[in-house]
Design brief:
The complex is a heterodimer of chains A (779) and B (165).
Chain A lengths: L2 H8 L20 E3 L10 E6 L8 E7 L2 E7 L12 H5 L14 E4 L2 E4 L2 H19 L4 E5 L5 H15 L4 E3 L1 H4 L1 H11 L16 E5 L3 H4 L1 H12 L5 E5 L5 H4 L3 E3 L6 H14 L5 H7 E2 L1 H8 L4 H8 L3 H12 L4 E5 L1 H4 L4 H14 L9 E4 L6 H6 L15 H11 L15 H10 L4 E5 L3 H4 L3 H8 L5 E6 L11 E4 L8 E4 L4 E5 L12 H12 L15 H12 L11 H7 L2 E2 L41 H7 L5 E2 L18 E6 L15 H4 L6 E4 L1 H7 L6 E5 L4 E8 L6 E5 L10 H6 L25 E7 L2
Parallel strand pairs in A: 7-8, 7-15, 9-10, 9-13, 10-11, 12-21, 13-14, 15-16, 16-17, 22-26, 23-25
Antiparallel strand pairs in A: 1-4, 2-3, 3-4, 5-6, 5-17, 18-19, 19-20, 22-27, 24-25, 24-27
Helix pairs in contact in A: 3-22, 4-22, 4-23, 6-16, 10-13, 10-14, 10-16, 13-14, 19-21
Chain B lengths: L3 H28 L4 H27 L16 H9 L7 H32 L3 H34 L2
Chain lengths: 779, 165
């Protein structure tokens, strides 16, 4: 590693390029090449964007002699203006790892053995047909990811919902972004991020709720840092129990007790309302529910919330004053809200803050319910995340008929007797034996799901046939009956969409290793083996490559909020990222939604009629029509409830899990990237200095973190985190444990050994940030 | 005071219905601890019904009517469980079927509570009793939300349970 790279790793957000409000963010091109290679040595460049976080940093892959040799940020792209973060710069090297899966594997006599594609796909298809005959489509489940491409999700959705006709298709996006989608549905009737990253250029206040943007979307943080370094910088309101890099820059930092976000937000609403910091013209024109919100918020005083959240009432008032004094407010939300108790209810209150201030649909004003994964938006919009394709409403018969026409199948073939089964219920059905086939694509659930001992026991169930499609052997492939080796970023072509609706093309730059195939080709081979037909006897899956799959998806998206009909691969290649909706009328995409009122909330168009924000019960169509006859944004109040697991004598601490800038998900790629892994090679636990002193823990002290579910061992870090809270990064599993198989079998490294099986009843997103634990010093 | 006997009748009816509901919600939560959402939400909903019992007892006391604000001890085996066992003809019921039976019973008990609140609300209006009406206005919407949750839960889980019997 040369001095320049050392410097970059030490200064993770690079050099400042300050700019003033309303100016264009200056360009800064970041690049990194293999040792001894320069940009001049590159034979060919291919366009893509980052697949290691949700920001969508556009870049070009440099290829020499058929190998990836480096990356360079695209200076003409709206998202990053040339910048790349550390995962973008170094993460591509994992593609070249010798650990890549290169052959299909099938289990024979208890062991996974290499085989050919026809045998592997044949086994999967045979088992599917047998189960369909014996037990029906309810015995088949699919669990996918937030890291495939839109063409692949659309193909998978077509196979699952129209081909097999199962209700059981969800993504690991359930763990990272389900609440984003649900909160947008509750307030605006449909998924779709109202704001744009460009709002950072104009904002007077940026309010970040549970969003450690510095580590989760470092290039977006560079943009914010450049505003902070320029004239008339924005003020930051930060809600986070840790004093993160973002919190260090805050005008007001609130660090609430875990599991109390809703009480805090309710008090902020209370303050806006009692001080009448409300844009009444906007509220009258574009919302319903104001009077009820005001009536219910009357009791939610800062003093009341202060007791619950353990945040000074005066700080809550200061935060409300900040919001009340400005209208160019950009609010952002991420896992600190989504993976906590009462997730959707809290995320919706952030929408309410924005609506009360009239901060929507204009430069510097809006809300971004962020995503955790690079292609999570596509999982949702293509209908692979427990939603229906094109943000259609399962309870609206006309929407089901539209889908049936698109697929040319009978409407009865498309399951719509309730909301599509969410992941936690799919696993529950596998646990109780009614789901007998689970096809897992592109995700490592034996590390990422809560309460791992339970997940392992489900995956090991005698009657469950497990197919795993991935690029490496993982903790999950260990349970597979069939392993399908996949191509990844740079080895296949498709499009994906970031957290501000920006669509990028990702081109195939090199051949995949060995016999590995693109996820699209794998799904297409399965569709052929199953011979799915439409109602006229023609192939249901009638496309055969990325571009024809994209064309099929465009037709499904037509006339919906996520309209892709104005895009082509050529346009994306040439122009860089373009935000949907992109149509003939808006050929270069749409910067902000709702610039001219709320457009997708009417009962005929909306993705959902809503849910009870506390119980999750569905709202019926007739109620929704009565509540919102003119299709406006819905101001929905929600009352705070205490978390289900609270500290006790045995477990005196609260436990929260999270991410680091150096890793993505379960480290399958970043753990195989030396520049990244060297910075964070093993699990740690963050403790407050006072708690550490009381426990006799110093920096690096080995501690056991124990919860009612399990125990892990980690090195302590003493950091500015609220007292009584322990933070553990959840990236670490067992594939690279020191000490081999025996050490791995101890299962004492993954944070999810500790987490609770509980989820938000509205979005069904599991709680990774509201559990309890105790800390024991290892003697 | 006119309508006193009516108040006594209607308050007692709400009290009994909410008491039955708490008992059943807690039993459901205990019996279905591995149905995680059912378990957690049932306990959250039991909290509401306990608050309703306290509110009913409070307003009853102000009217010289003695109702226990915390009537409920540790949960007993509820009627639904006995019924589910009976339905299955003495065989051990499928856990999925037991869940359906329990949620169905929850729907019925919550609906009974809702009707009791309706009765109390009508009486309060006819008697022009603003305080009593205030209690109904606060509590009854939450009872309706309990009914809806039972309905949604039943619709969500029943196809898989019945499809795999």
């Amino acid at each position: 590693m040369d001095a320049r790279e050392q410097h970059r790793l030490q200064r993770l957000w690079g050099e400042r390029t300050p700019y003033a409000a309303g100016e264009t963010w200056p360009v800064r091109v970041d690049e990194h090449y293999a040792e001894g290679v320069t940009a001049d040595d590159v034979d060919a460049w291919f366009t893509t964007a980052s697949l290691l976080h949700s920001n969508g940093d556009a870049m070009r892959i440099g290829v020499r002699d058929g190998r990836i040799v480096g990356v360079r940020g695209r200076d003409d792209d709206r998202v990053n203006h040339g910048r790349l973060d550390v995962k973008d710069l170094y993460g591509w090297q994992a593609n070249l790892s010798r650990d890549r899966l290169t052959q299909p594997l099938v289990r024979r006599d208890g062991r996974l053995e290499p085989t050919d594609w026809d045998t592997a796909i044949g086994m999967v298809a045979d088992r599917t047909k047998q189960l369909l005959a014996d037990h029906g489509p309810g015995s088949i489940g699919f669990y996918t990811t937030g890291q495939l491409f839109a063409e692949e999700y659309w193909t998978l959705t077509t196979i699952a919902r129209a081909g097999i006709g199962t209700h059981h298709l969800d993504g690991n996006t359930r763990l990272c972004t389900a609440t984003a989608g649900e909160a947008l549905k509750e307030t605006f009737g449909s998924d779709g991020q109202p704001a744009s990253y460009r709002d950072v250029d104009h904002a007077e206040v940026i309010a970040l709720f549970g969003h450690n943007v510095a580590e989760t979307q470092p290039v977006l943080w560079m943009r914010m840092l450049d505003r902070l370094a320029g004239p008339n910088p924005p003020k930051l309101l930060v809600v986070d129990p840790r004093r993160t890099k973002v919190a260090e820059q805050a005008t007001v930092h609130l660090a609430p007790r875990s599991g109390t976000n809703l009480a805090l937000l309710d008090a902020l609403l209370h303050e806006l309302l009692v001080n009448d910091w409300v844009d009444h013209d906007f509220v009258d024109a574009h919302t319903v529910g104001f009077d009820e919100l005001r009536a219910r918020a009357a009791d939610w005083t800062p003093a009341w919330a202060s007791e619950i959240c353990d945040v000074p009432a005066e700080d809550i008032r200061a935060a409300a004053r900040l919001l009340g004094a400005h209208t160019r407010i950009l609010a952002t939300v991420l896992q600190g809200v989504y993976q906590s108790h009462q997730a959707t209810a809290a995320a919706v209150q952030v929408n309410n803050l924005v609506l009360l201030r009239g901060a929507l649909g204009k430069p510097g004003a809006g809300v971004l319910q962020m995503n955790g994964q690079p292609t999570a938006q596509n999982t949702r919009e293509c209908g692979a995340n427990g939603d229906l394709p094109g943000f259609r409403n399962w309870a609206n018969d006309e929407h089901i008929e539209q889908l049936a026409r698109i697929w040319n199948v009978d409407p009865m073939q498309v399951p719509h007797h309730g909301p599509p089964t969410h992941a936690m219920n799919i696993f529950r059905y596998a646990e109780t034996g009614s789901v007998r086939f689970l096809w897992i694509s592109g995700t490592n659930l034996a590390v990422s799901l809560p309460e791992l001992h339970r997940i392992r026991s489900i995956l090991a169930s005698e009657g469950l046939f497990v197919v795993v499609q991935d690029i490496f052997e993982t903790e999950t492939t260990a349970f597979a009956d069939v392993v399908l080796p996949a191509a990844t970023w740079g080895e296949k072509t498709g499009i994906f969409t970031n957290a501000d609706r920006t669509v990028h093309l990702s081109e195939q730059a090199v051949e995949p290793p060995g016999e590995a195939r693109s996820d699209l080709d794998i799904f297409l081979a399965y569709a052929r083996a199953m011979d799915f037909r439409d109602k006229d006897g023609r192939p249901l899956v009638h496309w055969n490559d990325p571009e024809s799959a994209f064309a099929a998806w465009q037709r499904a998206s037509a006339g919906r909020p996520c309209d892709y009909t104005g895009l082509t691969y050529a346009k994306l290649r040439e122009h860089g990222g373009i935000q949907w909706p992109c149509t003939a009328d808006a050929p270069l995409g749409t910067e902000r939604l709702y610039t001219d009122g709320i457009s997708w909330a009417s009962a005929d168009l909306s993705e959902s009629y809503g849910r009870d924000l506390v119980t999750g019960a569905s709202v019926e169509e007739v109620e929704y029509r009565a509540l919102n006859p003119d299709g406006k944004a819905v101001l929905k109040a929600a009352e705070y409830l205490p978390p289900h697991e609270i500290p006790s004598t045995d477990y005196p601490f609260q436990l929260t899990t999270g991410r680091t800038i150096f890793h993505f998900h379960t480290r399958t790629k970043t753990g195989r990237t030396p520049e990244l892994n060297d910075q964070a090679p093993d699990v740690w636990a963050e403790l407050n200095a006072d708690d550490a002193a009381q426990l006799g823990v110093g920096p690096g002290t080995l501690v056991d973190i124990c919860s009612p579910r399990g125990r892990i061992r980690a090195a302590a870090r003493i950091v500015p985190i609220r007292r009584g809270l322990v933070f553990v990064p959840w990236h670490y599993g067992y594939w690279d444990v020191q000490g081999g198989a025996d050490a791995a079998a101890a299962h004492d490294r993954a944070a999810n050994e500790l987490t609770i099986t509980d989820w938000d009843p509205v979005s069904k997103q599991p709680l990774f940030k509201t559990a309890v634990c105790r800390v024991e010093v290892v003697r | 005071m006119t309508g006193e006997a009516g108040s006594r009748y209607a308050l007692s009816k709400v009290h009994q219905a909410e008491d039955d509901l708490v008992e059943h919600l807690v039993a459901v939560a205990e019996r279905h601890a591995t149905e995680h959402e059912v378990h957690h939400v049932a306990l959250d909903l039991a909290r509401w019904s306990r608050e309703h019992l306290a509110a009913v007892a409070g307003t009853a006391q102000a009217r010289g009517i003695d109702l226990d604000p915390h009537p409920h001890g540790p949960s007993r085996v509820s009627r639904a469980a006995q019924r589910a066992t009976a339905v299955m003809g003495g065989r051990r019921p499928e856990p999925g079927v037991l869940l359906l039976e329990d949620v169905e019973q929850l729907y019925l008990l919550a609906s009974a509570a809702s009707l009791a609140w309706e009765l109390l609300g009508q009486h309060a209006k006819a008697q022009r009793d603003a305080d009593l009406l205030g209690v109904v206005t606060t509590c009854h919407p939450r009872t309706l939300r309990q009914v809806r949750w039972a309905n949604t839960t039943l619709r969500t889980v029943s196809p898989q349970v019945l499809g795999s019997l």
